[in-house]
Amino acid sequence: MTILVVFLALLIIATLLSVPIAFVLGLIAVVLIDLYLPNLDLSFVMARRVITGMQIYTLLAIPFFMLAGEIMSRSGIVEDIIEFAKYFVGSIRGGLAHATVVANILMAGLSGSAVADAAAIGSLTIPAMEKAGYGKKFGTAIATSAALIGPVIPPSIPMIILGIVAQISIVDLFIGGIVPGILMGLSLMGYVYFISKKRNYPAAGRPPAFLPVLRKTIWAILLPIIIVGGIRFGVFTPTEGGAIAAVYAAVIAKLVYKMEWKEYKEALVGAAESTGVVLLVCGMAMVLTWVLTVLQVPQFIVQLFQSITTNKYVFLFIVNVFLFIMGMIIDLTPNIYLLAPLLFPVAKAYGIDPIHFGVVMSVNLTVGLLTPPVGTVLLLGSALSKVKLEDLVKELIPIYVLYFIILLVITYIPEIVLIPVHALGGVK
Fold first, then answer.
1. Burial class for 234, CB neighbours closer than 10 Å (0-12, 13-18, 19+)
2. Is the CB of residue 70 less than 8 Å from the CB of residue 245?
3. Are 161 and 115 in contact (CB under 8 A)?
4. Do residues 136 and 126 touch, judged by C-beta distance below 8 A?
5. What CA–CA distance (Å, rounded) separates 313 from 201?
6. In this predicted structure, what is the pLDDT of residue 1?
7. Distance between CA atoms of 6 and 297, rounded to whole angstroms?
8. Cα-based torsion angle of the residue sequence 30, 33, 35, 37 in order, rounded to the nearest 10 degrees
9. What pTM does this model have?
10. Largest Cα–Cα separation, the chain
C-alpha cells in the first residue's frame, strides 16, 4: 500500500507541475528504486530498461503508420474525402457536419491519430460550417469529437502500443475497434441531425461530380482494408503492414495527388518528431513497469479490487470511471503505458476477455483527449477556431454523455467487440 501511495503522490505532484510525462515516469521509477530497491545499480537499470523498452520489434510499426498519416494529411486527399462524404450525407439537414463525421471515419483508416485528424479535417470544416451558419462553437465541437474515431478504427497507433504493453493480438484489437468506432460515428450523426433540426441548420447539398472524386479517394479508402486484411490473413505482420502503408501512401500521394518533394520532407520530419516523443515515453514507461512488477504492485492491485468487489460488472464500472478521470489529467499514450500493466492482470483475474478489455480501455482513454484540462484534441480545437475553452466544453457536454453511454454499451455487451474478432478467426 505504501508503494502505491508513493507512486500516486509522485504522479499527481509531477503532473500538476506540468513536468513532461516521459520525465514523470522516469522520476517515479528512480524514486521507487532508491526507496525500495536500494541494492540495484540505478544507472545500469535505467539505461538497460530504457533501451530494452525501445527495442521491441513491433514498435517499428508506429513510425511507419505515423509517416503514412503525415503523407496522406499533406497530400490534399482531405478535401477529396470531405467531398466524397458530402455526396452521401450532404443532402441531410446538417449535411456539412455529417460530412465532417464521415470524413473522420474515412481518415481514421489513414492516420490512426485523433490530433492529426482534428487538424487536417477541422481546419477545413470548422470555417466552412461557420460560413454556412452552423456556429463556430458547434462546428468545433463536431470536428473535435469526430476526430476521436481515429484512434478507435484501425489502423490505430494507441492499439499498437496497447497490444505491445499488454502482450495481446494487435490485429484482434484492430478488428475489435471497428464496430465501436462506427457506433461513435453513427451516434454523433444522430446528435448532429437532432441539433440541426432544432437550430434549423441547412443541408450542404451533393457535389456535382462524384466519379472524379471517387477515382482519387478510392485508393486511400482501400489502404485500411489492405492493411487489416493482410495482417489478419497472415500476409504480413503489423510492422510489415506499417511499412507497406507508408510506401503505399507515398506512391499514391505522388501519382494521384502530385505531392511535392518538399512536402515529403516535411512529412518525414513530422513523423520523426512524433516518433521521438512516443519512444521516449515508451522507454521510461518500460522502466517503471519493470519496477512495479518487481515490487509486486500488480498483484496487490488484484487483491485490492477483489477485496472491494467480486462482481466483474462492478469492477468494469469502477475501472471506467477511474480511466475517465485519468484521461482528464494524462495523455492517451502515457496512460496506456502506465495503466495497462496494472489493470490487465486484474481484468484477467475477473475472467474478462483481454481483447474486449483492451478496446474498452482504448475507447475510454481516447475520450480523454477531448476533456479538460489537458485534452490535446480539445486544446487543438480551441486553438483552430479561437473559441474559448470554457465555451467549447459547454458545447461538448451532450457529446461527453453520448460517448460515455457508448462506452457503457461496449463495456457490458462484449459481443459488440468480440463477434467481429471471432468471425475473422481471432481469439476464441
1. exposed
2. no
3. no
4. yes
5. 41
6. 66
7. 12
8. -170
9. 0.87
10. 73
**366 and 400 in contact (C-beta within 8 Å)?**
no
- CB-side neighbour CA atoms (13 Å) of 182: 8
The reported pLDDT for the residue numbered 5 is 86
CA distance 403 to 188: 9
Domain ranges of the chain: 54-423
Q: Are 357 and 110 in contact (CB under 8 A)?
A: no
Residue 70: in which H helix or E strand, if any?
helix 61-74
240, burial (CB in 10 Å: exposed 0-12, middle 13-18, buried 19+): middle
Q: 3-state DSSP helix/strand/coil percent for the chain, to nearest 5? A: 80, 0, 20
Q: In this predicted structure, what is the pLDDT of residue 222?
A: 85
Question: CA–CA separation, 342 vs 364, rounded Å?
Answer: 16
Q: What is the pLDDT of residue 282?
A: 87
Tell the residue number behind the cell numbers 483481454, with chain if given.
354
- How far apart CA 34 and CA 338 sit, in angstroms, is 20
> Which residue matches cell numbers 500488480?
298
The phi-psi region of residue 10 (left if phi > 0; otherwise alpha if psi is between -120 and 50; otherwise beta) is alpha
Give, in order, the Cα–Cα distances in Å from 381 to each of 41, 182, 237, 370, 412.
45, 22, 35, 9, 31
Count the neighbouring beta carbons within 10 Å of the beta carbon of residue 73.
24
Q: What is the DSSP letter of 167?
A: T
Which residues of the chain are under the pLDDT cut of 50?
428
Query: In angstroms, what CA-CA distances link 200 with 33, 34, 135, 218, 425?
Result: 61, 63, 11, 33, 47
For 338-365, what is the HEC assignment?
HHHHHHHHHHHHCCCCHHHHHHHHHHHH
What is the C-alpha to C-alpha distance for residues 148 and 368, in angstroms, rounded to an integer? 9
How far is residue 314's CA from residue 411's CA, in Å, rounded to a whole number?
A: 11
Q: Which of 262, 256, 231, 242 is nearest to 111 (CA)?
A: 242
Q: Residue 335 CB: number of other CB atoms within 10 A?
A: 21
